[in-house]
Description:
The protein is of the alpha+beta class. It has a seven-stranded mixed sheet.
Amino acid sequence: MNKHVAPQLNRRAFVIGSAALGAGLALGFDLPFGGPRVVRAADGSPEVNAWVVVRPDDTVVIRVARSEMGQGTLTGLAQLVAEELECNWSKVTTEFPSPGQNVARKRVWGDYSTGGSRGIRTSQDYVRKGGATARMMLIQAAANEWKVPVAECTAANSIITHQPSGRTTTYGKVAEAAARLQPPTDVKLKDPKDWKLIGKAVKRLDTADKTTGALVYSIDLKLPGMLNAAIKDCPVTGGKLKSYDEAKIANMKGVKKVVRVGDSAVAVVADTWWHAKTALDALPIVWDEGENAKVSSASIAKWLAEGLESGPAYVGNQSGDINTALAGAVKKVEAVYNYPYQNHATLEPLNATALYTADKCEVWCGTQNGEAALAAVLEGSGLPAEKCDVHKHLVGGGFGRRGQTDYVRQAVDIAKQMPGTPIKLLWSREEDMTHGRYHPITQCKLTAGLDADNNLTALHMRISGQSILFSLRPEALVNGKDPATFAGLNSSGEAAIGYSIPNVLIEHSMRNPHIIPGFWRGVNVNHNAIYLECFMDELAHAVNEDPLAFRRKLMAQHPKHLAVLNAVAEKIGWEQPAPQGVFRGIAQFASYGSYVAGAAEISVVDGKNIKVHRVVAAIDPGYAVNPAQIERQTAGSFVYGLSALVYGGCTVKDGRIEQTNFDTYNSMRISEMPKVEAIVMPSGGFWGGVGEPTIGVAAPAVLNAYFAATGKRLRSVPLRDQNITFA
């Protein structure tokens, strides 16, 4: 694709503005949808605007800036554009514009960050306008050719019709002329009631190539003359590389070079990755692990536990007078929960291929944030933006991990020491697990007060533990407070608590161990949902009330929360007796702009092993672009959530993560997977997320069912540490 002349950029300003996940570029937000000058795709086809290329055979290429990592965003965004474009869906294909092209064209494609379930909901408006604008330009081109009023022409299925005469033409025939038109400034989007494609369960656009193996992930990439690199970083975060004895491996098969990477890592470059890894494993390395090597899971837990009782705390949600209310309560209930570090454990380990010369630096990788990856290339190469680019591939698992760019920077650092040679850096599984960016570790103390009529009058939650924004996006802190900590517990907004309680205090004692946290699918929602929803169950049982009825009393002013809760209760048959030996649990939560609820049916074998028979989950995301994909996302979220509940959890010994492969960090198997029944119930009027919200109710629904089955309350995750597993 031809590029406009790149603007002159200040590299440091670029890096500062884009390095953090979701920060985007500090270059303004401009969406020029084309112009009189024809911009052409690589095959010479005209670009009607930045979002739409139409080939002569009527194939429509839709540009997608966000990343595809299995969640279906690629297909969903294409649906949004195609809906307004009125094109033939069977002839739609997609491509990723590079972040370098985005910079050169003044961010015409907007934000590249794919996380926080934002891929569709925060770009839906402007991508639909891109489709609508292209449609209007194509119709105008046909009207100009026919010399008729544009108002007499309509478009459907990539065919333009002049209504009075019945004359027709196709998009492919007028695309060249359309590309030369000035785009309209007044673009009206369809009313949702007129949608034909949005809301339909169309097949994913990437499935066929995945099935046949035609799809090339970055781990599969081969470039002429490419060498391979394996890397080891200091196993203790914050430690340094002290020394290594290169002579010991210099004559090993295939070895080309040994290079220092930053101040804490060493890499071996060889003809094959296996030769590189074999040599790296034989390389004598001395680390300076520093003071962090003294840290353990026990020391972290002790520090967090102290934060539950004393010390400063940031207030996230407060109303009424919590101290007076608790002092006057007829019944008080107290509990302490905890949630561990979790690893992303993506199937495709981190990798990136870099090619550096004095005049150009390019990287090929899977990333959740192309702009942040580009910023890492700029920082590592020292070159200006117009001489750098990142070529995005589909991601073999992200879950938040590929929003970080450490692996990109490493690849550039290595390639810079071997100019002109493409270097593919591939982390081993052990490196990937040891140097993750982990789900933040927290503990929570909950105290509730109830009156003589068993009404919940006071709720105090004190969370002690890590702030994800403190480490990854400190500029997003609000007077030192991390708003993300209170996901699902806020008084209002897209992550509001679903209960009306007169006296509330929810606070955070921020304590940040040296283990670096990361955006892990659902992030704070996962532990907050356990803390709140399992405790609500405790309160219901403390006053001998049905857990569903107890919740309903508090939800009259929260109709959307209540609607999804009622939907799962009805679907699972809450009001009817469960089958013999089967027990039920229920939970609800709101996050990422969506409302979710889950109900589980389980049985317990030998008092500990859990068989999850059935899960019902409901989600109201406002609008549902592809209901079938939402159902798949919901089922997938339960795989992730239940794996974390039972098998997950990372422990720290001598300052380092102990779980280094799947033998110690397991995932649930097909035989352990319950039947998942998803209820997609879009109520309209807002755009919520899909990929992360439902994961939050997976664990509490099962934990509450476990209590119903055994009378034992589990407040610590993972369950494997309590000798509880899947039956």
